[in-house]
C-alpha cells in the first residue's frame, strides 16, 4: 500500500476512543426514536401480530440481502431494536475502520482521520439516519470500510492469516453491496489497490510496462475482488430479477449531456447547497444545539491537538479537492442512469445521499491543508474540520429532532385510534393539520397512514393516505399498485367504504424542538406521563362517508378483497 505506517498503539487507541465517543453522542437521539417511517411499515413488524408480507423483496424488488436482514429482525420479535443496533454498528464500525485504514496507509494523520470520519458519519444531507429499514444501507456503508481495513491488513500479511483476511474482506464487501451504489466506492478501493501495487513495482520498467504489470498483478493476485461485483449482479439478474414497478423504477438508460448536467446540479444543490442553507437558518433560529455541538467538538480538539501533523507536499492540498469532484460525479452517476433525483424537501428523498459525506469531508480536508500554511496545522484543524464538525453535528441533531417529532405525531394518532371503535370504513383520508403548523412537517405517506390504521384496528385491508399529499385519483393509483406484478400492497382494498380523519394540533402541540425536548423530559426525567403527553398533542375526529375531492374506485363486488 502507499505507506504502511505503524502509529503508536496508545495514540491510535486514544484517537479511536475520541471518534467513537463523538459519534455515540452525535447519534444518541437514534436510541430514543422507536418509530417507523415510510416503507419501514412494509417490511418490519411493530408488534408480533402485525401481518406483513415481505416476499416482494425477493420476488420483485431484487433485494435478497435486505430481505435476510428484515426477516431476521422480525424473527427476533424486536425488529426496531435490531435495526437501531444495526445502524449504530455500521456507524461505529465504518468510522473506526475508515480512520484506521487512512492512518495505516499514511494518507491522514490521526487528528485528520478523526475529523474526516466524523464528517462522513454525521453527514446531515442524509436525513434517514433514524429510518429503520434503511439501517441496512447504513450498515452496508460501514461494511465497505470494514472490508477496506481487512484488505489493508491482508496486503502485508503472509500465510494462513493472509488467506483468512482476504476471504473475510471478500465476504464483507459482498454484504456491503446491499446498498448497490457502494459498488462505485468499491471500484475506487480496487483502484487504490492497483496504485499500491504500481508504487511497489520496479521504476526501471518504465511507466507503460510498470502500469501493465501492476494491472496484471492486481487482476491475477486478487481474482476474488475482480469477480465479486460480477457474481453479485449475475446472481441478482438470474435469481432475483426486478419486475413490475421496481423494474420501471430502476429503468437504466444512458443519460444525455443535458440530463447529466441537470442531474449533477440537483445532487449538488441537495447534498451541499441546501445543507449550507440549513446551517445558516439553524444558526439564526435554533443556535443552542450548535453551541452544545461546539462544546463537544471543542473537548475533542483538546484531546487531539497533539495528533495534528503539518503537511508539506503540494499534492496533499490538491489531491483531496480533485478526488472530491471525481467522487461526487461518480457517486451520483448510477442514480442519474436510473433517472433518480434527490430532494431535501422530503426526508425520504434524501436516501440517495448516504455516501455524499465523503466528498464533503475531502473538500474540508483540502481546505484544512491549504489554510494550515498560513495559520499552522493545529489552528487549521480547529478552524476548518472543527467548525465543519460543529455544523454537521448540529444539523444532524436537527434532522433527528424532526424525525422524532414525526414519530410522536404518528404515536398520537395511533393511540387515539386504538382508544375508539373502528367506524364502518376501510378507506381513510387523513386531513393533517400539522402541515399548516409553523414547524417543519411532511405529510404522512401511504404506508405510514395504512400502517397506523392496521396497528390500531388489526390486520384488515385498510387503505390510508394523507388528503393533501395525494391526487384525486389516489384510489385508482393504489389499485394499479395492488394488482401489479410483485406488488407490496396486496393486503389493501381501495374499494371499501370511506371516512375522513381530521388530525389537528392539540393543546400540547409545539414546534419540533420544543415538542421533542418536552418528550425527552417525560421519557428520561419522568416529568410527565408519556401517554398523557401524546393525548394532548393532537385532536382527532372521524367523519364516515365519501371523501371530498377523491374519485371513488368502482370495482365489481366479485373482485373485492376479503377482510383479513
In short:
This protein has 564 residues and is mostly helical.
Explain what this protein looks like in three dimensions.
Helices cover 62% and strands 4% of the residues. It is built from 22 helices and four strands. It has 564 residues and is mainly alpha-helical. It folds into two domains: 9-242 and 256-399, no CATH class; 420-544, no CATH class. The model has no long low-confidence stretch (mean pLDDT 90).
Radius of gyration: 25 Å
Mean pLDDT: 90
Measured by DSSP, the beta-strand proportion falls in: under 5%
Question: Strands of the largest sheet, in order across it?
Answer: 2-1-3-4
What tags apply to this protein structure?
mainly alpha, globular, 2 domains, transmembrane, membrane, about 575 residues, four-stranded mixed sheet
Write the layout of secondary structure elements.
Elements: H1 9-26, H2 29-32, H3 40-43, H4 56-59, H5 64-76, H6 79-104, H7 110-121, H8 135-156, H9 159-176, H10 182-199, H11 207-221, H12 223-239, H13 244-249, H14 257-285, H15 288-304, H16 315-337, H17 357-375, H18 377-418, E1 427-432, H19 446-457, E2 463-466, H20 474-483, E3 498-505, H21 512-525, H22 530-537, E4 538-544
Parallel strand pairs: 1-2, 1-3
Antiparallel strand pairs: 3-4
Helix pairs in contact: 1-6, 1-7, 1-15, 5-6, 6-7, 6-8, 7-17, 7-18, 8-9, 8-10, 10-11, 14-16, 14-18, 15-18, 16-17, 17-18, 18-19, 18-21, 18-22
Amino acid at each position: 500500500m502507499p505507506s504502511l505506517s505503524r502509529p503508536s498503539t496508545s495514540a491510535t487507541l486514544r484517537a479511536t476512543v475520541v471518534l467513537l465517543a463523538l459519534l455515540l453522542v452525535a447519534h444518541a437521539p437514534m436510541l430514543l426514536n422507536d418509530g417507523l417511517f415510510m416503507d419501514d411499515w412494509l417490511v418490519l413488524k411493530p408488534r408480533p401480530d402485525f401481518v406483513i408480507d415481505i416476499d416482494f423483496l425477493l420476488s420483485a424488488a431484487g433485494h435478497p440481502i435486505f430481505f435476510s436482514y428484515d426477516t431476521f429482525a422480525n424473527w427476533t420479535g424486536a425488529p426496531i431494536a435490531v435495526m437501531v443496533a444495526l445502524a449504530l454498528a455500521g456507524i461505529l464500525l465504518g468510522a473506526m475502520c475508515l480512520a484506521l485504514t487512512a492512518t495505516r496507509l499514511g494518507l491522514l494523520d490521526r487528528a485528520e482521520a478523526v475529523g474526516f470520519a466524523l464528517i462522513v458519519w454525521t453527514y446531515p444531507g442524509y436525513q434517514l439516519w433514524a429510518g429503520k429499514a434503511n439501517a441496512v444501507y447504513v450498515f452496508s456503508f460501514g461494511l465497505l470500510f470494514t472490508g477496506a481495513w481487512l484488505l489493508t491488513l491482508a496486503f502485508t500479511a503472509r500465510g494462513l492469516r493472509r488467506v483468512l483476511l482476504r476471504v473475510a474482506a471478500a465476504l464483507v464487501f459482498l454484504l456491503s453491496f446491499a446498498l448497490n451504489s457502494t459498488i462505485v466506492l468499491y471500484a475506487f478501493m480496487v483502484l487504490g489497490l492497483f496504485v499500491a501495487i504500481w508504487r511497489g513495482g520496479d521504476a526501471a520498467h518504465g511507466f507503460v510496462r510498470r502500469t501493465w504489470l501492476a494491472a496484471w498483478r492486481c487482476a491475477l493476485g486478487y481474482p476474488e475482488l475482480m469477480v465479486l461485483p460480477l457474481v453479485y449482479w449475475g446472481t441478482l439478474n438470474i435469481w432475483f430479477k426486478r419486475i413490475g414497478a421496481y423494474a420501471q423504477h430502476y429503468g437504466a438508460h444512458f443519460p444525455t449531456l443535458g440530463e447529466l448536467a441537470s442531474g449533477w446540479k440537483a445532487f449538488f444543490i441537495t447534498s451541499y447547497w441546501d445543507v449550507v442553507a440549513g446551517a445558516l437558518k439553524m444558526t439564526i433560529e435554533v443556535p443552542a444545539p450548535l453551541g452544545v455541538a461546539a462544546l463537544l467538538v471543542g473537548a475533542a480538539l483538546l484531546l487531539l491537538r497533539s495528533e495534528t501533523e503539518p503537511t508539506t507536499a503540494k499534492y496533499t492540498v490538491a489531491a483531496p479537492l480533485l478526488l472530491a469532484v471525481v467522487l461526487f460525479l461518480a457517486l451520483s452517476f448510477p442514480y442519474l442512469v436510473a433517472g433518480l433525483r434527490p430532494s431535501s424537501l422530503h426526508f425520504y428523498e434524501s436516501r440517495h445521499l448516504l455516501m455524499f459525506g465523503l466528498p464533503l469531508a475531502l473538500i474540508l480536508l483540502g481546505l484544512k491543508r491549504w489554510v494550515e500554511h498560513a495559520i499552522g496545522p493545529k489552528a487549521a484543524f480547529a478552524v476548518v474540520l472543527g467548525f465543519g464538525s460543529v455544523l454537521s453535528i448540529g444539523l444532524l441533531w436537527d434532522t433527528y429532532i424532526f424525525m422524532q417529532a414525526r414519530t410522536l405525531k404518528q404515536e398520537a394518532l395511533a393511540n387515539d385510534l386504538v382508544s375508539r371503535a373502528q367506524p364502518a370504513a376501510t378507506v381513510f383520508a387523513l386531513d393533517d393539520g400539522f402541515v399548516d403548523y409553523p414547524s417543519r412537517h411532511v405529510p404522512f405517506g401511504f404506508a405510514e397512514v395504512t400502517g397506523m390504521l392496521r396497528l390500531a384496528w388489526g390486520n384488515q385491508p385498510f387503505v390510508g393516505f394523507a388528503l393533501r399529499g395525494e391526487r384525486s385519483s389516489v384510489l385508482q393509483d393504489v389499485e394499479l399498485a395492488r394488482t401489479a406484478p410483485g406488488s407490496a400492497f396486496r393486503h389493501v382494498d381501495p374499494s371499501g367504504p370511506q371516512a375522513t380523519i381530521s388530525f389537528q394540533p392539540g393543546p400540547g402541540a409545539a414546534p419540533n424542538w420544543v415538542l421533542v425536548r418536552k418528550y425527552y423530559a417525560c421519557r428520561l426525567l419522568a416529568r410527565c406521563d408519556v401517554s398523557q403527553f401524546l393525548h394532548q398533542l393532537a385532536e382527532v375526529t372521524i367523519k364516515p362517508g365519501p371523501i371530498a375531492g377523491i374519485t371513488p374506485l368502482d370495482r365489481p363486488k366479485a373482485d373485492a378483497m376479503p377482510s383479513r
